[in-house]
Amino acid sequence: MNAGQAHHISDANVATSVEALFKSVDAWQTGHFLLSSGLHSDQYMQCQRILQYPVHGMHLARALATKMLAAGIKPKAVVGPALGAVHLEVFMALAFNEILNAGESPITAEHHNSEHQVRAIFAERAENGQDFVIRRGIELAQGEEVIVVEDVTTTGGSAKRVVDLLTQMGAKTLAVGTIIDRSGGKAKFDQPFFSLEELNLKTYEASACPMCQAGSQPIKPGSSKK
Ligand SMILES: [Zn+2]
User: Ligand 1 center to residue 111 CA distance, Å?
Assistant: First the structure.
């Protein structure tokens, strides 16, 4: 990618521009991938290639937050499964703070009062590698209204586990949000589900993967250096 290349996308046409933005930073990759859901695919959306640029990240987050606010979703905290959502959850919380405080001076005592800020919280994997936990002294009030975000939704399994955790902790999940829903409509939640872009990208069980059958080995993109 060209260092000086601009990737500005207009709010008017977010859906097609999300694709263009992904392609422009080579975040939409082809190969043979082992997804975090355990499924194999010949396509991978490496969101972190976009989210490494906070300007891009904030642009996507504002679009998603605007969509959620228009549906009456007004969270007190944004929670995401680590590591995939650690940037996104901050961008989303900032976007909500920005929009909800629009027109007001950002340097008022009220905005520095933590009660008036939308919080950004990450849930991390428990020792069993499956469940999630919220550590590091972060607390949730009983009935606190939160949303769960993840960058790309394949099956929604991680987001669902985070929703379960929040329910156990007494918080109320208002909605789930994602930049890319690549599940082809298969990811279902008990809460309203928002995405900026819906794609139907083929995934395979390992035992039925044609690329594996052709003798190729899948790579786990999150842990690869590519
Ligand atoms: Zn495979």
Answer: 49
Report the C-alpha gap between 133 and 71 in whole angstroms. Answer: 29
> Measured in angstroms, how far is the CA atom of residue 218 from the centroid of ligand 1?
5
Please tell me the distance between residue 216's alpha carbon and the centre of ligand 1 in angstroms: 7
Q: 209 CA to middle of ligand 1, Å?
A: 5
pLDDT at position 185 is: 86
Q: In the chain, how many H helices and how many E strands?
A: 7, 8
> In percent, how much of the chain has pLDDT > 90?
58
Centre of ligand 1 from the C-alpha of residue 201, in Å: 14
Tell me, what's the pLDDT at 201?
A: 84
- The alpha helices in the chain, defined as continuous H runs, are 14-24, 48-51, 54-70, 86-100, 109-112, 157-168, 210-213
CA 160 to centroid of ligand 1, rounded, Å: 25
Burial tier of 31 (Cβ tally within 10 Å: 0-12, 13-18, 19+): middle
Using alpha carbons, list the distances in angstroms from residue 103 to 93, 114, 131. 17, 19, 40
Q: What is the pLDDT of residues 3-12, one digit of tens each?
A: 444 444 444 4
Residue range 34-59: mean pLDDT, rounded: 90
Centre of ligand 1 from the C-alpha of residue 208, in Å: 8
